[in-house]
Design goal:
The protein folds into two domains: about 200 residues, NAD(P)-binding Rossmann-like Domain (Rossmann fold, 3-Layer(aba) Sandwich); about 140 residues, Rossmann fold (3-Layer(aba) Sandwich), CATH 3.40.50. The chain has 17 helices and 14 strands. The chain has an eight-stranded mixed sheet, sandwiched between helices. Helix 16 links the parallel strand 12 and strand 13. The N and C termini lie far apart (about 55 Å). It binds nicotinamide-adenine-dinucleotide and uridine-5'-diphosphate-glucuronic acid (UGA). The site of uridine-5'-diphosphate-glucuronic acid has 21 residues, from helix 9.
Length: about 425
C-alpha cells in the first residue's frame, strides 16, 4: 500500500517506520523543515528505543521517505494518516487544540483526486472526524474520500513493540470500501493475530479517551491508597501485589509514584472532561483522577522537605530522572517539572541528571539547575538524592559509593519505590519511599 503520514512526531514517525517495516511505501510529511532535513540526513528527532534502526532500514529499502510537501505523497496514497499534535489549548481551559488537525484537513483537500481514505490517528474529541470530513468537502467538493478514526494506543519508550503487537486495532468507519483499505494496511499485523475492533467514528474517538482516562484513574487510585498506607502503617508494595493478583483488577498500572505525566494522560483527561461537560454529563471519576494527580505532584515537594528535616533552604538535592517515564526524552508534564522549580524557589541547590532528557528539560526548568553527567556526580556533596524516574541505570546504583559522596546523614527519597527500605537503612541512609512506613 502507499501511505502518507502527516505529522512526524512520536506517533507519526513510529507509525511510518513500522508501516514501512511491514512492507508498505510510506511518506512522512511534516511542516517542520528542520526536522525533515535532519530525518533525510539520518537524524532522529526523538529518543525512542529501536526507532533509529527501523527508520534506517525503511530508508535503505526505499520504503520510507520524508518531505514537507504534501503533493507527491497525496498523488499515490491509498490512505492518509493524520498524526499531528492535539495539545491542550493555550487558553488553559482543558479543550483539545484542534488547529493542527483542521489545518491538515484544509491543506490535503486540494490534492485529493482518486479515492483516498483519510484516517485520523491523532487523539481527538468526539465529532472531530466528521468535522474534518466537512472541511475537506468544503475545500474540495469533488473530493472522493472516506473518513476513518483509528486512534493510537502506543506508549512512549515501548512504542515500536506496542505498534507491532497491539492489544487491539480500533477502526471507526462507515464504509465497507474504507474498511477494506484499512484492513489491508494492517493486514501484516492481523496475520500476527492483532484483533480489530470495528466501530463507528464516535465510538472509536471516545474509546481512546476512555482508555487513557481509565489508566489515569488506576494510577491516581493507587497513589491515594499509597498515601493512606503511609498514615496507617501499611505497605503499598505488598498491597498492590495482593490486589493486583485478582485477575479482574490486574497488576499493571498499580505502581504508585510522583503522579502521572507525559503528553497524553494530563491533557486527555481534561479534554474528556470538557466533552462530558459540554454534553451536560458528569465524569466525576475522571475529574477526581486529575485532581488527585495534581495533588500528588505537590505532595512530593512536602515529602522531600520533611525528609531533609523540614527546611529546603540551602540544602543540596540530587535529582535522578527528568523525563515523565524511562526510555524517552520527553519531559512533557513530568513530575520533575513541578518538583524542581519548587525546590529552587525554596532556596535549594539542585543538581540533576537524566540519561536522555536533559536537553528537553533545560528548555523548561529554571536556569539555576546544575546538570551533571551521571548519578554519582549528582550525589556528590548532596544532602538528599531524589529518584523521580525509574531509568534502568538508577536501579542498581553503587549505594556505598553514593553514600560516601554525599554529605553526612544522607537522605534517599525514592519516588518510584525502586530500592528496599530495610537495605537502605542498613547502609546508613534515611530512606523515604511512597506508601511505605
Ligand atoms: P508530536 O508533538 O510529537 O508531533 C506532532 C508533529 O506534527 C510535529 O512534528 C509537528 O511539526 C507536526 N505538525 C503540526 N502541524 C502540521 C501540519 N499542518 N502538517 C504537517 N505536520 C504538522 O505529537 P505526538 O506525541 O506524536 O502526538 C500526536 C497525536 O497522537 C496526539 O493527538 C497525541 O495525543 C496522540 N498520541 C500520542 C502518543 C504518544 O505517545 N506521544 C500516543 C498515542 C496517541
Ligand atoms: C499512555 C498510554 O499508556 C498509552 O496507551 C497511550 O497511547 C498514550 O498514553 C497516549 O495516548 O499518548 P505514555 O504516556 O507514553 O502512554 O506512558 P505510560 O506508560 O502510560 O505512563 C504515563 C505516566 O503514568 C508516566 O508518568 C508513568 O510514570 C505513570 N505511571 C504509569 C505510574 O505512575 N504508575 C503506573 O503504574 C504506570
Amino acid at each position: 500500500m502507499n501511505i502518507a503520514i502527516i505529522g512526524a512526531g512520536y506517533v507519526g514517525l513510529v507509525t511510518g517506520a513500522c508501516f514501512a517495516g511491514l512492507g508498505h511505501h510510506v511518506w512522512c510529511v511534516d511542516i517542520d523543515e528542520q526536522k525533515i532535513q535532519s530525518l533525510r540526513r539520518g537524524g532522529i528527532p526523538i529518543y525512542e528505543p529501536g526507532l533509529e534502526s527501523l527508520i534506517a532500514k525503511g530508508v535503505a529499502e526505499r520504503r520510507l521517505m520524508f518531505t514537507t510537501d504534501l503533493e507527491d505523497p497525496m498523488l499515490l496514497a491509498d490512505a492518509v494518516f493524520i498524526a499531528v499534535g492535539t495539545p491542550a489549548s493555550r487558553r488553559g481551559d482543558g479543550y483539545a487544540d484542534l488547529t493542527y488537525v483542521y489545518a491538515v484537513a484544509e491543506n490535503l483537500a486540494q490534492y485529493l483526486n482518486d479515492y483516498t481514505v483519510i484516517v485520523d490517528k491523532s487523539t481527538v474529541p468526539v465529532g472531530t472526524a466528521r468535522e474534518v470530513a466537512r472541511i475537506i468537502e468544503g475545500a474540495n467538493p469533488q473530493a472522493d474520500f472516506d473518513m476513518v478514526s483509528n486512534p493510537e494506543f502506543l506508549r512512549e519508550g515501548a512504542a515500536i513493540e506496542d505498534f507491532m503487537r497491539p492489544d487491539r486495532i480500533v477502526i471507526g468507519v462507515e464504509s465497507d470500501r474504507a474498511f477494506d483499505v484499512i484492513k489491508e494496511v494492517y493486514d501484516p499485523l492481523c496475520i500476527r493475530n492483532a484483533p480489530i475492533v470495528k466501530t463507528t467514528l464516535e465510538t472509536a474517538e471516545l474509546s481512546k479517551y476512555a482508555a487513557n482516562a481509565f489508566l489515569a484513574i488506576k494510577i491516581s487510585f493507587i497513589n491515594e491508597v499509597a498515601n493512606l498506607c503511609e498514615v496507617v502503617g501499611a505497605d503499598v508494595l505488598s498491597l498492590a501485589q495482593a490486589v493486583g493478583m485478582d485477575g479482574r483488577i490486574g497488576d499493571k498500572f498499580l505502581h504508585p509514584g510522583p503522579g502521572y505525566g507525559g503528553s497524553c494522560f494530563p491533557k486527555d483527561t481534561l479534554a474528556l472532561l470538557r466533552t462530558a461537560q459540554e454534553c451536560g454529563q458528569d465524569l466525576r471519576m475522571v475529574g477526581a483522577a486529575a485532581e488527585v494527580n495534581n495533588a500528588q505532584k505537590a505532595r512530593m515537594i512536602k515529602k522531600i522537605k520533611d525528609a531533609v528535616g523540614g527546611s529546603l533552604e540551602d540544602k543540596t538535592v540530587a535529582i535522578l530522572g527528568l523525563t515523565f517515564k524511562p526510555e524517552t526524552d520527553d519531559v512533557r508534564e513530568s513530575a520533575a517539572l513541578t518538583i524542581i522549580p519548587a525546590l529552587i524557589e525554596k532556596g535549594t541547590v539542585v543538581k540533576a541528571h537524566d540519561p536522555k532528557g536533559i536537553e528537553e528539560a533545560r528548555r523548561e526548568l529554571p536556569k539555576e539547575v546544575q546538570y551533571v553527567a551521571d548519578s554519582y556526580s549528582a550525589a556528590e556533596d548532596s544532602d538528599c538524592v531524589v529518584l523521580i524516574t525509574e531509568w534502568n541505570q538508577y536501579r542498581a546504583l553503587d549505594m556505598e559509593r553514593i553514600k560516601k559522596l554525599m554529605k553526612v546523614n544522607p537522605v534517599f527519597v525514592d519516588l518510584r519505590n525502586v530500592y528496599r527500605k530495610q537495605k537502605m537503612e542498613e547502609l546508613g541512609f534515611k530512606y523515604v519511599g511512597i506508601g511505605q512506613v
